[in-house]
């Protein structure tokens, strides 16, 4: 009984606890984005000064170079979204910190499916594993957003239509990525195309956007 | 003589020194939790687009995937405990900073026993090494907690019964993990079960909990 | 219409958002500068106590040691420039944060071309790849600087002559590094010499320097 | 002429620039201290549940385990010294930031000589390389300390006798480590003993310690 009266412990924007949650998060993002460079090994050449041989050797590793930059771009895009999300938070509670950790587990794992995709783009299983990982990360974004809305952690209370619009926009990539999995077993190229359906959707969705949504959702 | 009069040097919550101790700690946690992804190598396939072959190859590496997520969860749980612990501190002194470093040495080492456990779960020695590492980390938590209590570094002085309850609850995992070592030489599955004895204990311990313990121990 | 009236969202120096952009950036720089030590493997010796054999083995790896220190120096120099640049900023906007990420992608990649250069200095392609990477990083510095100037993000508005001087000085290394690429196919030593043309240029450019440029450009 | 009148640019304790120098430094220390765990590979066993075989395999890698903990302890000790040093600083200037980077290059390199020492303790060259690296780091501590004293960056101006005492105490390990190099070619054990001469020296040096040195040198 008394427990329900006790105020839930929260940490405001200016607290040490808010700051270190972000230090930990940003450190983890920085490592996940940089680690793939370790995979880029200097090739062994029989003729050290041969342009042709070096070009061939690097060409054989081209999947790793592509993986590095795709992984950097994808994780970087999530970091930008996380940065925007936290800029809208007034405070944290312990459960949001734990949910943020769960989200970060799948960020830290992302370099692996990305490398797999870079190496075996024509393999439906690579597409599926990558799609599942990305769908989980995007799904966790929805969980984090809903939790903050429902537990009064945002700086500005969102009107219901703006909240529902925000959830719908964040769920769209989850749907597209899950949808791409069965498609991958027909054609991996077609599956990858599905991932970009968000771009036309965003254009169409402008019409349904509630007034003031941009200001509120972008903190 | 004069030395005993000199005030011990402490660093308050808002100081640069408090902040950088946490930056260092959070950076180290983030690295320890992310590093295991380096172990996840993309397999070499003879038929790049074969779902079956890729599934088999990933299955052979399943211990590494399990290790990654277990290690992330275990170290993440310690990070949450460390976050809670520091939220109760009003200030640091040099000795606590050094004890924190010692604690972090065993956090940084944890990915290795976890990987060993993931690969050789049926080996009693893997169980023993993992249990010793986790027992040391949990034991260091008790040391850090007692030190802060005894040297007036906490924001709120704890009543003696709350302090003793906190120490007992933190010591329980140390006991269970040490106990699991001899059991591992009989059955590794039974030993791993011992690790979860903390869950029923926590339920039973609710009865002995001194009033106000939750508020005080959770900062 | 209304959108054009809405103020662009910016984050001041004291905001959590400004701070975490720097935490992320500094973490990424620290990792990129430290990672090359992973490449330095302890050699295997037939006679563990033979000075001669160990000296030979380390000598064979000398390219890796040189790469480590060159990479540290080059990335460290960029970190110093980034530190100076951000000390002149009064605020960030979302686009500058995204441009900063793009810049960091090429910082995170730098250890690879550096290792390639350390191993195959006589190969024109190594020189070319390194020169392209460095030219992109220096070019991104110009982009970041111009963006901040043109979008009123600097603490002090720069006079036009000082701004143009700053751009010219930052573009000079881009020109020298691009110029070195065709030269590398004639002589790699000559190409590397081109990289140091910035030193005499800086001495000559003192004459054209607008008054007050030092104070303004060094924040 | 006018340049000599322009005040040198400094960054106070509370500035963004002071903070990010420490974020970068602490990130780099955390990485250097954690990276060695990557070297600890899970061994391959023919009988997965054999305690004997796993014990043998881990025993063969014992040098790596010892290296990990020695490296953590040595770099951790330098981090503690750096933490104390910065707690005495009132402000930074650009040159101190650059000197700090140079110091960090040798911190980032330290895991390699430590691993070499762990593997080939009986090899005089391992001892010599390790001693040179440690002597450079300790020497850089003296440089950083002198620079701060001579350029008025400390919070409290040190009396000359306290300053000279501080420099002498910091130079002592440099001397002992350099001295150990020729000794290593006679006996590596004797050389390692030299490294601990600082302990009796510190006890003797208490007598010469100027009044108030403890307070002033420990910030």
Question: What do you see in this structure?
Answer:
The structure is a homotetramer of 219-residue chains. The first copy, chain A, has eleven helices and two strands, in the order H-E-H-H-H-E-H-H-H-H-H-H-H. With 219 residues, chain A is mainly α. Chain A has a two-stranded antiparallel sheet. The longest helix of chain A is centred in the middle third of the chain and has 27 residues, at 124-150. Chains in contact: A-B, A-C, B-D, C-D.
Question: Topology, pairings included?
Answer:
The structure is a homotetramer of 219-residue chains.
Chain A (H helix, E strand, L loop, with lengths): L1 H4 L4 E3 L3 H19 L16 H10 L1 H26 L3 E3 H16 L1 H9 L4 H27 L9 H25 L3 H7 L3 H8 L7 H5 L2
Helix pairs in contact in A: 2-4, 2-5, 4-6, 5-7, 6-7, 7-8, 8-9
Biggest interface, residues from each chain: A-B, 37 and 40 residues
Approximate helicity band of chain A: over 70%
Outline of chain A: globular
What is the radius of gyration of chain A?
21 Å
List low-pLDDT spans of chain A.
Answer: 1-6
Strand content of chain A: under 5%
Structural class of chain A: mainly alpha
The tally of beta strands of chain A, per DSSP, is 2
Count of helical regions of chain A:
11
**Overall pLDDT level of chain A:** 89
What sequence of helices (H) and strands (E) makes up the elements of chain A?
HEHHHEHHHHHHH
Strand order of the largest sheet of chain A: 1-2
Spatial gap, N to C terminus of chain A: 36 Å
The biggest beta sheet of chain A is recorded as: 2 strands, antiparallel
């Amino acid at each position: 009984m008394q427990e329900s009266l006790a105020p839930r412990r929260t940490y405001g924007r200016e607290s040490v606890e808010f700051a270190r949650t972000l230090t930990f998060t940003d450190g983890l993002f920085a490592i996940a984005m940089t680690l793939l460079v370790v995979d880029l090994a200097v090739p062994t050449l029989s003729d050290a000064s041969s342009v042709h041989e070096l070009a061939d050797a690097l060409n054989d590793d081209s999947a790793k170079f592509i993986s590095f930059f795709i992984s950097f771009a994808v994780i970087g895009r999530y970091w930008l979204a996380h940065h925007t999300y936290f800029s809208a938070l007034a405070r944290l509670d312990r459960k949001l910190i734990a949910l943020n950790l769960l989200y970060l587990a799948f960020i830290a794992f992302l370099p692996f499916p990305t490398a797999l995709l870079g190496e075996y783009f024509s393999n439906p299983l690579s597409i599926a594993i990558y799609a599942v990982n990305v769908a989980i990360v995007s799904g966790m974004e929805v969980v984090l957003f809903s939790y903050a809305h429902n537990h009064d952690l945002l700086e500005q209370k969102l009107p219901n239509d703006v909240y529902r619009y925000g959830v719908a926009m964040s769920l769209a990539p989850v749907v597209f990525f899950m949808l791409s999995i069965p498609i991958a077993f027909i054609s991996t190229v077609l599956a990858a195309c599905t991932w970009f359906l968000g771009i036309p959707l965003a254009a169409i969705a402008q019409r349904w956007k509630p007034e003031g949504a941009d200001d509120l959702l972008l903190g």
